[in-house]
């Protein structure tokens, strides 16, 4: 027995579950599963199997299903149990609750009712993929699942074109080739990318290359399994000194020197100090002699 049955305070306790390898669960998550008065899960079968693997008994407790399709019906019951002083543990099907997961509304409702909410952190497919992708991790944006219709998808992808961060998408193997083609169309095929699939599982694979290279590699070699697609940030375009000065002058019309320099430096990938010195020079030129 590697878990401990403890008194768990009344409230909502989120816990992360493995994204593939069952041994990735944390000891704290096992303690919560063993101690909670009430169990809730996005997929009750997955949680039941996980508890069996780790020897955590149900002890007569019922596992409530809580997912996208029954949230409106299941939520009032769970909230009522917490208001009665029960501790409720909620587990996503895989990974961290609220990351592409229906637990958000349950969390919001619990907080609105003054119910304590805690989280036992753990596995996340997005973070696992980012860790092994080789792409910049100092700034990233999780974009979730793209829309299903082509028009909505193109608009969705285009909105991320100027974002100076590594982008993360979840996608199905049936649509990944189409997604790569649409990303080439909207973001440009030269963007660096990493296709990470079956993370922590036996057939884990990471394919790296440009968006165009990954799209080409999948034409005759389809993939299976759960996929995280990471796309590198846009490269800054070279800007002439005249254009840079023009941008600074426009920014200075409504901003302080410091703020104008910071915005223009961010936009063009410059050092803030250099932009600040240029902004100061422009200000001095415009000052009455």
Automatic annotation (TrEMBL):
Its main location: cytoplasm. Its EC number is 2.1.1.198. It catalyses: cytidine(1402) in 16S rRNA + S-adenosyl-L-methionine = 2'-O-methylcytidine(1402) in 16S rRNA + S-adenosyl-L-homocysteine + H(+). Coiled coil: none annotated. GO terms for cellular component: cytoplasm. It is found in: Cytoplasm. Keywords: Cytoplasm, Methyltransferase, rRNA processing, S-adenosyl-L-methionine, Transferase. InterPro entries: 4pyrrol_Mease, 4pyrrol_Methylase_sf, 4pyrrole_Mease_sub1, 4pyrrole_Mease_sub2, rRNA_ssu_MeTfrase_I, RsmI_HTH. It is an enzyme of class 2 (transferase). SUPFAM superfamilies: Tetrapyrrole methylase. Residues 240-282 form the RsmI HTH domain. GO terms for molecular function: rRNA (cytosine-2'-O-)-methyltransferase activity. Residues 12-214 form the Tetrapyrrole methylase domain. Catalyzes the 2'-O-methylation of the ribose of cytidine 1402 (C1402) in 16S rRNA. HAMAP family: 16SrRNA_methyltr_I. NCBIfam families: 16S rRNA (cytidine(1402)-2'-O)-methyltransferase. Belongs to the methyltransferase superfamily. RsmI family. This is Ribosomal RNA small subunit methyltransferase I. It comes from Celeribacter baekdonensis B30.
């Amino acid at each position: 027995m590697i878990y401990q049955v403890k008194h768990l305070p009344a409230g909502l306790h989120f816990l992360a579950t493995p994204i593939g390898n069952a041994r990735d669960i944390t000891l704290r998550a096992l303690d919560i599963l063993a101690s909670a008065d009430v169990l809730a899960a996005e997929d009750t079968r997955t949680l039941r199997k996980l508890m069996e693997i780790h020897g955590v008994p149900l002890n007569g407790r019922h596992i409530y299903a809580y997912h996208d399709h029954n949230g409106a019906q299941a939520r009032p019951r769970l909230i009522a149990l917490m208001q009665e002083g029960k501790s409720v543990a909620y587990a996503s099907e895989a990974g961290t609750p609220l990351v592409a997961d229906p637990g958000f509304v349950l969390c919001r409702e619990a907080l609105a009712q003054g119910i304590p909410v805690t989280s036992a952190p753990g596995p996340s497919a997005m973070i696992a993929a980012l860790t092994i992708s080789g792409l910049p991790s100092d700034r990233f944006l999780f974009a979730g699942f793209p829309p299903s219709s082509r028009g909505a998808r193109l608009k969705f992808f285009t909105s991320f074109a100027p974002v100076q961060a590594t982008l993360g998408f979840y996608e199905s193997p049936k649509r990944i080739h189409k997604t790569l083609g649409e990303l080439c169309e909207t973001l440009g095929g030269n963007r660096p990318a990493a296709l990470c699939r079956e993370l922590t599982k036996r057939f884990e694979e990471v394919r790296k290359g440009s968006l165009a290279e990954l799209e080409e590699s999948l034409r005759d070699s389809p993939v299976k399994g759960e996929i995280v697609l990471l796309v590198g940030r846009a490269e800054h375009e070279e800007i002439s000194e005249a254009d840079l000065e023009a941008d600074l002058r426009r920014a200075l019309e409504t901003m302080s020197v410091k703020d104008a320099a910071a915005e223009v430096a961010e936009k063009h990938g410059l050092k803030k100090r250099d932009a600040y010195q240029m902004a100061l020079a422009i200000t001095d030129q415009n000052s009455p002699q």
